[in-house]
Amino acid sequence: MTVGVLLINTGTPDEPTIEAIRPYLTEFLMDPAIIGAPYFVRKPLVKHIVSTRPLRTVKRYQAFWTPEGSPFMLTSRAQQQALAQELGPGFCVELAMRYGNPGIRPGLEALREAGCTTVVAVPLYPQNVNVCAGTCLKEVRAQLAALAKEGWRPDLREVPSFHDQPAYRRALAESVRKAWTPEPEAKLLVSFHSTLLKDIQCDPTYLEQTTQNKDWLCADLGLSEDDAILCFQSRFDSRKWLQPFTEHVLDQLAMEGTTNVCVVCPGFVADNLETSVEVGMELRERFLQAAQAAGASREQVSFTYVPALGSDPGLISALTCAIKGVL
Questions:
Q1: What digits encode the pLDDT tens for the residues 233-251?
Q2: How far is it, in rounded angstroms, from Cα 174 to Cα 234?
Q3: What's the helix, strand, coil split of the chain in %, to 5?
Q4: Within a 10 A sphere around the Cβ of 110, how many other Cβ atoms?
Q5: What predicted TM-score, i.e. pTM, was given to this entire model?
């Protein structure tokens, strides 16, 4: 008997071009989990957004891309391979993206062809939030319902989060230690992807888990509560999102005279635009300029971004434990 494992992440355009970004962005925004308006409202709204936003984001994708392709996709493939090796015989691991390629349906079909009678769906988000893990699992269920009509009805197991896996906690703390040495008055920003405030009001799980991870990280690093700040990034529009926003926290710290900050993004296991570009480039420059405006010299200012865990053995071990825990 072979157990199928479907690793799922958000996705990426096939190329860093406007032509490739538009269909990817359309699929993303047409998901009701992202824009919850009725279809007849959502469709023209998305059409308008897609006509303009790629013109602004294409340069960010190009800054992130490498000659080998998207670092996000390369990392995701490395995670797939490392997990397959860790799980060993009796497991088949496939990679899928909620939006773009490779899709969830082809990933499930590959597991069917491998003869899997059990499928473990693993959204690659340590914390559980509807717009990420929730929509991934919903799509898996929908595709399995369609495949059931063709006679394939595997036993579905789900890993909605793995934020409390000890190996994940250890790997996260070690990644910060490798990248940053705290000094007096320095601050650690624990930055997660923001989500709509109305979703948190309906289900506070995400806020509870992000708060736990921030508190655990402080404990593991030996930091006081005042040394670290929980914040949220990457809001998409003008709706009400979970706060405080990472950029506003950085602005405030610069105004108060803080010159040494470190930003870690525990909700992302593979670097992408929201981490490498938004935090590592754009927010870095924003903080440097704000600190200089407050009177610091550029040489006095230190901004550290902690890279995502990627295929770190600790993350792979955490995923292995989470998968075996639902079997």
A1: 988 788 899 999 999 999 9
A2: 25
A3: 50, 15, 30
A4: 18
A5: 0.95
